[in-house]
Amino acid sequence: MFLWSVLVFVNLVSGTTGTNAGVKVRVTQKGLDYGRQFEMASIQQKLRAIQLKDMSGTERLLIGKVEYSITGMQIVNLGLPKSALGFVPDVGVMLSVANADIALRGNWKVKYFRFIKDSGSFDLTVSELSISSTIAVSGDGTGRPTVSMTSCAASVGSVKVKFHGGASWLYNLFDSFINKALRSALQKQICSLLPNSVADMNPFLKTLNVLSKVDQYAELEYSMVEPPVISNTMIELGLKGEFYKVGQHEEPPFSPRPFSLPSQDTNMLYMGVSAFSINSAGFVYHRAGALRLYITDDMIPSDSPYRLNTKTFEAFIPQIVKTHPGLMMKLLVETVKEPLITCEANNMTVQASSMVTAYAIQSSGTLSPLFVLNLEGSVSANIYVSGLKLAGHVTLNKIQTSLAKSYVGSFQVTSLDSIFTTVLKVTVIPKVNAHLQEGYPLPAIGKIQLQKSQVQVLKDYLLIGTDVQFTG
Ligand SMILES: *[C@@H]1O[C@H](CO)[C@@H](O)[C@H](O)[C@H]1NC(C)=O
């Protein structure tokens, strides 16, 4: 009972504090595997630059006291044949490198019996080198992810040396003293260089487009709203995913509902775009007055059965013949509240409540209002990925009209439905589609291309599965 109350309490607390994510981005093991090659290239570069300090010392051997020095050590080859990146739940990722080898070249010098000097070069091969390092993933305080190395261990398997010049007892000197010193110098060097290579990823992560301008009306925010969620199969970032009026971040009267992505792993990346995110766009555009359009006859294709003039309406509103004979018309279509987007499995529908004001254009150019209609329209949306954007295309399902006000007496408004359906299909819908085709930026990092992207409509969100390719 006590546990139960605690759980309920925890739930309440977490429900009231954090903002739910509007967009989620999940990286799978496949995505991690793709990223690994870039991290390995960076590590390769860093390790090749390892500088081993010259070493010198004095040792007492059978032949007496020997002074030695090892100088000019350089890495001539580095092999990293086997590496893996895996998830560490709640922490980040683990990098492991196995069976690596390093070939070094350097010079040796010895002095013994006070006056005998000898020198030459040597080749050294370090093999079965393994490295294991934990990289923590967290938020950087500006809404972007950041990585840092939290642990590193390197171990050298075997060291083989080939002396050029010199006597065989030099091997003993090497085996007993120099070998050990080199091992520990290498292990230290590797673990002191790795954090840099990990930190090199941060400028790249900083390129997350936390705020992207969409157009003159809207910008899209993608900052992280919660710490990354990391399991042993994926890492998931919860992003705000909200449209705002440019420069003015006012919250809409609705908020994101929690949602979770299905466990799919055939793509490198999955993104969930909630109905909330799309609805926030509707809110911004409606508020900005962007969802209104004047329709004139020249926008209607010449092969349309209807012209936008009072003659077209005569059959349905006979009074027009008397009051406004032979005039061209103009319509103003505008939303009266933000459109409502609903996502059900394989079905994304947008419901728009709008108002249509019909005017007759007098020969002087003056507009005389004829009537005002309430128009409820529903469209089906098809969403697709285009470049780094989410784009769409809508088709008109059905409209429902009712008369709000008439300046030309009463008439049967439903008889006009087919005219308005046709007019909307050839004017408003193509304009909406032209905008939707421009697309809306998806969250992205660095220069990437999305490949094999597919969009699925699920309950309350869109699921995008995609592979990525870095292009620069
Ligand atoms: C799609 O969803 C809308 C709104 O939820 C619903 O009215 C419509 O019937 C659905 N269409 C199909 C084909 O299921």
From TrEMBL:
CDD domains (UniProt xref): BPI1
InterPro entries, alphabetized: Bactericidal_perm-incr_a/b_dom, BPI/LBP, BPI/LBP/Plunc, Lipid-bd_serum_glycop_C, Lipid-bd_serum_glycop_N
Keyword Nuclease (UniProt): no
Record Gene3D superfamilies: Bactericidal permeability-increasing protein, domain 1, Bactericidal permeability-increasing protein, domain 2
Subcellular locations according to the entry: Secreted
Signal peptide: 1-18
Keywords recorded for this protein, A-Z: Antibiotic, Antimicrobial, Disulfide bond, Glycoprotein, Immunity, Innate immunity, Secreted, Signal
Pfam families referenced in this protein's UniProt entry, alphabetically: LBP_BPI_CETP, LBP_BPI_CETP_C
Limits of the Lipid-binding serum glycoprotein N-terminal domain: 26-248
Residue intervals of the Lipid-binding serum glycoprotein C-terminal domain: 263-466
Domain comment in the entry: The N- and C-terminal barrels adopt an identical fold despite having only 13% of conserved residues.
Assembly with partners or alone: Monomer. Homodimer; disulfide-linked.
Protein family membership: Belongs to the BPI/LBP/Plunc superfamily. BPI/LBP family.
Purpose: The cytotoxic action of BPI is limited to many species of Gram-negative bacteria; this specificity may be explained by a strong affinity of the very basic N-terminal half for the negatively charged lipopolysaccharides that are unique to the Gram-negative bacterial outer envelope.
Annotated protein name in UniProt: Bactericidal permeability-increasing protein
Species for this entry: Cirrhinus molitorella
